[in-house]
Amino acid sequence: MYDIFFQQTFYLTLITITSFCIISGFILSYASIKLKVEVISAVEQIDNLLPQTQCGQCSYSGCKPYAQAIVEGDVINKCPPGGQTTINSLANLLGIEAVNLDMSYGIPKERKTVAFIREDECIGCTKCIQACPVDAILGAAKQMHTVIEKECTGCDLCIDPCPVDCIDILTLEESLLDWSWDQPLSIKSADIAKKRFEYQKERRNNEADQKKLLQIASSNFESKDDKFVQAESIIQEAIKQAAEKKSSPEVGYARFLRQVARSKDQLLNANKKLKKLKKLEFSSNDDKYKQAIAAVEDARIRLAAIESSNPRKTKPTDRSEKNEETQKKNKTGV
Ligand code: SF4
Ligand code: SF4
Ligand code: SF4
């Protein structure tokens, strides 16, 4: 009965079967890597359709949190940078009806914008770096800062924190290289912005962990390092001086002029878009046309509000009021 183990054919069969199993194993593992079907979650799919400006206008801290909120039942029309194109794509993906953009969250920009730091006015306080969601600003404490143009998503988040108001938002001219038909403005750089946003989130989490560890370690010392205290007081002094400078009438007026220019630019763009639609003979009942009219109206209201806050607007003085009264009296002969 055990003679079979001593026959050559037995060993040949065994070797053949073993080799077949090993080769099949290799082929299957290679195929499982190469032909792997990526399972993308619903949040990822929605996030991929958002423009990745990371501006927070939707009331969430970035595009991914908004994507998460949509999955949990929030509406799809809160993203001004994405505009109607993004709403339509989201509606298509989710199999629901496309609605109009909710303009209370902001007006879509006609062109791509980027931040520009007037470097000679920068005091190096790093507040803009902390506000930038995609790490598009370079600089260190007490040193001039600058914006990496191709990384900037034009989200405007660095404008308000700047204590000396030395950041401008510039509108970029469209070129053949970045022209696209009816797509959100930043769609081409969306992938980069998404990666930078995620990388920054991870980095900030790590920094927070390290800070905690340092705090625990330094709690054993009674006083802070002298150099640290000195550096801290220099920055505080610079911020104080900047705040004083910012509240001066000249700086206030310069800021007012920049806001007016920015607002006029927005009105101009909104009007251009409306004219384009008129040329293309869009019906006044068309959603796009209605949106363009609403955008012009919003931009006009915003401009009027800014212009009315002119810090150099001369209020009627007592004398001019008296003159008016005398003129009235002369006219009526009383
Ligand atoms: S681009 Fe801005 S408004 Fe749109 S989803 Fe992203 S963070 Fe929200
Ligand atoms: S530089 Fe300013 S505008 Fe540009 S992405 Fe950063 S925060 Fe936004
Ligand atoms: S917030 Fe303004 S002053 Fe401070 S570093 Fe940035 S650009 Fe310079």
Please give a structural write-up.
There is one protein chain. The chain is built from ten helices and four strands, in the order H-H-H-H-E-H-E-E-E-H-H-H-H-H. It is flat, with a radius of gyration of 31 Å. A hairpin with a 7-residue loop joins strand 2 and strand 3. About 3% of the residues have low confidence. It is 54% helix and 4% strand. The N and C termini lie far apart (141 Å). Helix 2 packs across helix 3 and helix 8 packs antiparallel against helix 9. With 334 residues, it is mostly helical. The strands form two sheets. The chain has a two-stranded antiparallel sheet with strand order 1-4. A two-stranded antiparallel sheet has the order 2-3. It has three domains: 64 residues, Electron transport complex subunit B, putative Fe-S cluster (3-methyladenine DNA Glycosylase II, Chain A, domain 3, Orthogonal Bundle); 115 residues, Alpha-Beta Plaits (2-Layer Sandwich); 78 residues, Helix Hairpins, CATH 1.10.287. The site of one iron/sulfur cluster has 16 residues, from helix 3.
What's the SSE blueprint?
Elements: H1 8-34, H2 42-49, H3 63-71, H4 83-94, E1 113-117, H5 127-131, E2 137-138, E3 146-147, E4 167-171, H6 190-218, H7 226-246, H8 249-279, H9 287-308, H10 318-332
Antiparallel strand pairs: 1-4, 2-3
Bound molecules: iron/sulfur cluster (3 copies).
The site of one iron/sulfur cluster has 16 residues, from helix 3.
